[in-house]
Amino acid sequence: MAQQEDVFKKIVAHCKEYGFVFPSSDIYDGLGAVYDYGQNGVELKNNIKQYWWQSMVLLHENIVGIDAAIFMHPTTWKASGHVDAFNDPLIDNRDSKKRYRADVLIEDQLAKYDEKIQKEVDKAAKRFGDSFDEAQFRSTNARVMEYQQKRDALHERFSKALNDNNLEELRQIILDEEIVCPISGTRNWTEVRQFNLMFKTEVGSTAEGASTIYLRPETAQGIFVNYLNVQKTGRMKLPFGIAQIGKAFRNEIVARQFIFRMREFEQMEMQFFVKPGTELEWFSKWKQTRMAWHQALGFGAENYRFHDHDKLAHYANAATDIEFHMPFGFKEVEGIHSRTNFDLSQHAKYSGKKIEYFDPETNESYTPFVIETSIGVDRMFLSVMCHSYCEEQLENGETRVVLRLPAALAPVKLAVFPLTKKDGMPEKAQEIIKDLRFHFNCKYEEKDQIGKRYRRMDAIGCPYCVTVDQQTMVDNTVTLRDRDTMEQHRVNIADLRSIIEDKVSITSLLKKLI
């Protein structure tokens, strides 16, 4: 685990050093849990968003997009339940004066049991080799069974406490499991309290005339309040979806793990409206569709898993997360929820407007049910960085740091180097860039030896480098280097676009989804 934490620290440092992510207001020593995306980070982030957007809107005739405002009428958040129920259960350690989410402390404890079980399994697998039967070992080994029993008992108790909203029981679990504060190492805990996560501000010109308004804590409500507008103007027939990418804001007290949990973050959400009674079938379909989208990036199926919710929101009848294997464990990157007709019904009730769908086939009106897919852009960005970061030992004894980003997501697709700054080579290199920059993001580099330039491009994940040399000036061929294999080939300048374009375009990813 310590080794994984070291890797994570290196990734955070790499993000800053190579222009991916900076602490916000860095010259003023930053602002807690707020980050800025640098010149390479914004390109990677935009590519992730483009991959998601096109997979939703281009590949589905019945999904359209919107861009709703961040500020919404305050009654929106009354109707959605956020004013009364958007809370985290928080607990303080009296010695360290640090505040934690009670549910996260218990989830970490569950993960510790899983780690202990896995450790026993890995040891046995090493001992028995090919003859090892993992299922049999898990069901017969005394130590594994003991850990599993403790884990299951904790899990059952934890689920019940969450569903009953029993704050005293959450605290009692923390005491019974002897969970200590990571900083003070003590078990001197306060009571568990609820804390609302919405940011408040005021709209209006004078203090007396101003009314309280909220920064949206999610982007979904902007879709729900526009359901009628989109359905009528787009003449949409069920089932259909509305997609949106946008900023959301949560006053996270326990913000942590770099960009994993932030106060200002970005979401990619799609709300899919369906006929009541078909929602669980669609829920299942969207689970598979979304998992396929993640796995098309080539990070390996073993790094993803579904995690069904222990506590369903009161309006949901099914919910699951897609979790990705980060250096700090399996963590949620996307949620898929069957939200029933809760949202539209609530907005109809609070607004006094009739929000229904007239079904021409059955000649009846009803409130559609909703399947939600919601993914955090920043968490997705982090999972891509974590999986791509690689320290590689080379044959000559050197180490290179390489970001093995999927080529379609890489910030820079092609770097072009003149071997020297003379004999017309810089001009030739610029000529290549002028031709190719309309098709993908290119970068010109002439500083330092060619080896150092390759290393810089490896570190930002650039999949291809081209070197212009003496031979180029004679026969219009260049050296094309592949980031992952480091192999080099001579190719004609005229062929560069056809060799590179398909591999680095978002289309190359989308084709895997059809």
Question: Could you explain how this protein is built, in words?
Answer:
40% of the residues lie in helices and 24% in strands. With 514 residues, it is of the alpha+beta class. Among the domains are: 87-195, Herpes Virus-1; 399-513, Rossmann fold. A hairpin with a 5-residue loop joins strand 17 (389-393) and strand 18 (399-403). The chain starts with a helix and ends with a helix. The mean pLDDT is 91.
N-to-C span: 38 Å
CATH class of the domain at 399-513: Alpha Beta
Low-confidence stretches are: none
> Rg from C-alpha positions?
26 Å
Average pLDDT reading: 91
- Give the CATH superfamily of the domain at 399-513: Anticodon-binding domain
**What is the tally of helical segments?**
18
Strand order of the largest sheet: 3-9-10-16-13-12-11
Number of strands: 23
Class per helix and strand makeup = alpha+beta
Second rung of CATH, namely the architecture of the domain at 399-513: 3-Layer(aba) Sandwich
% residues in beta strands: 15-25%
- Report the helical percentage: 25-40%
CATH topology of the domain at 399-513: Rossmann fold
Quick one: biggest sheet? 7 strands, mixed
